[in-house]
Amino acid sequence: MTDFQALIVEEHDKQYVRRIGCRRLQDLPDGDLLVRVRYSSLNYKDALSASGNRGVTKRYPHTPGIDSAGTVVENRGGGSLRAGDPVIVSGFDLGMNTSGGFGQYIRVPEEWGVRLPASLTPKESMMYGTAGFTAAQCITAIVNYGVKPEDGDVLVSGATGGVGSIAVAILAKLGYRVVALTGKSEDAFLERIGAREILSRQTFASSPEKALLRERWAAVVDTVGGDYLATAIKSTRYGGIVTSCGNAASGDLPLTVYPFILRGIHLVGIDSANTTVAKRQELWQKLGGEWRLDFLEEICREVPLADLGSCIDLVLASRLTGRVVVNLG
């Protein structure tokens, strides 16, 4: 019997309470792959799970954490991952209804594990986490669509958040002129990571009465949804591409079909949870290689498990900038 530390979310009198407590390996779900988690990271979906959002997590008590990086303890499935191998486990059902990376151990299906690239440490992989992986998916869609830096501005919404900040930084590294859309006063931060222009969310008018707006964006990375996504689509250039990966503002899309049938706009949905392992391996190699950011430490902060609760509160209040990496000891 092995006890380990974890963030535990419990329901008491219709209120959800978070605490750091002991769990046992025997309490973990079935799965061939047992991993000792060294680092995790904090995402918006984690904050929702930690606050009792039943659309994310159906059963409590629960340990959130959709990201984890650590070391294989055992693999009963007989696959290529062996005891002692460094591994990333993120997405799928981890941290949603399967006990997640905010605990020192996880047990998951073997096919959820991705070998950690030699170019990344476990901590560095969690500096990217699902946020960086999702940003990489958006950028891959834009690059594969054929948008080049000389084609025009690329808009990134929610630019101070996890996905947004990494998208800004990688796009800038690749030579694109990035325009950052944000609701926060973080101009110095955004300029430091590569934004060439900053727009305030308060002035990014939705103009619901207009089906189309002046063409501006060659491509868009949208992390917030709602009116902001609608406005971005309406103002994307003829034949441009818009990637959609979040709904922090709204899950609604108040829009007509005209941007699609008159301008040929390409709207691409991005899902990181169920991406194939082969694609995951490819993107993690890019994040550790040609797309590697040299200033990850500047956009991340490391916290122990004991301090995670206050960071979750910041996410829920939309007051967190950059990335939070959780050290599980």
List keywords for this structure.
single chain; 15 strands; alpha/beta; 7-stranded mixed β-sheet; 6-stranded parallel β-sheet; Rossmann fold
Helices and strands, with pairings:
Blueprint: E1 3-12, E2 15-24, E3 33-41, H1 44-50, E4 67-75, E5 86-90, E6 105-108, E7 113-115, H2 122-145, E8 154-157, H3 162-173, E9 178-182, H4 187-193, E10 197-200, E11 217-222, H5 226-234, E12 236-244, H6 258-262, E13 266-269, H7 277-288, H8 296-299, E14 300-304, H9 308-316, E15 323-327
Parallel strand pairs: 8-9, 8-11, 9-10, 11-12, 12-13, 14-15
Antiparallel strand pairs: 1-2, 3-4, 3-6, 3-15, 4-5, 5-7
Describe the model.
This protein is α/β, with parallel strands linked by helices. It is built from nine helices and 15 strands. Strands 3, 4, 5, 6, 7, 14 and 15 form a seven-stranded mixed sheet that branches. A six-stranded parallel sheet has the order 10-9-8-11-12-13, sandwiched between helices. Helix 2 crosses helix 7. Helix content is 27%, strand content 28%. The longest helix is centred in the middle third of the chain and has 24 residues. It is globular, with a radius of gyration of 20 Å. The protein has two domains: 145 residues, Quinone Oxidoreductase, Chain A, domain 1 (Alpha-Beta Complex); 140 residues, Rossmann fold (3-Layer(aba) Sandwich), CATH 3.40.50. The model has no long low-confidence stretch (mean pLDDT 94). The chain starts with a strand and ends with a strand.
